[in-house]
Amino acid sequence: MITNFDLYRWKKAGMTNLGVNKLLKFFHRYDKKISLRQMGQVAQLKSIPNFIEQYKNQDVSKLREEYKIYPSFSLLDEIYPERLKEIYNPPVLLFYQGDIRLLKTPKLAFVGSRQASSQGIKAVQKIVTELNQNFTIVSGLAKGIDTASHLSAIKNKIPTIAVIGTGLDIFYPLENRKIQEYLAKNQLILSEY
């Protein structure tokens, strides 16, 4: 049986999300053990010898400690968002901080400019205020519209999820550190890194 830690090890050895997804489909279809070389072939890796070397040289106990720093879930888990599974090349593993139950709520995503106009920010505030807690707000944590959507959600006591493009231990942009820390404790932050 494939575990989330197995997926983590494959990724750390250089396998891409696309490669892992191909491998998961193979195992689902054939349910048999294969060698690392065969895994590389199924995943269509560019450098199978490099993958094998990286995999064999892993310090498994150190890697396991690193893996345990933040909780995670994968495509194999029931909590993984169904719509995210439908995109091309979905992330295999997602790490999180906060209330994972927010993934099961109705969601409304906000995207927009990092150099948001005052009119754009006011529009976000108005929309979020009028939602009246019927949706969980989802956005990145970049400057501009992303930040405005999260701040409006917090102000209106509406659940919010930040999907960030860095590791959970990195604050980017740095000016959003306090928002990120708040969301990690009281809402939800997701990252594939």
From TrEMBL:
One of its GO terms (biological process) is DNA-mediated transformation. Residues 2-63 form the DNA processing protein A sterile alpha motif domain. Coiled coil: none annotated. Residues 76-193 form the Smf/DprA SLOG domain. It holds the Pfam family DNA_processg_A. Belongs to the DprA/Smf family. This is DNA processing SMF protein. It comes from Lactococcus lactis. The gene is dprA.
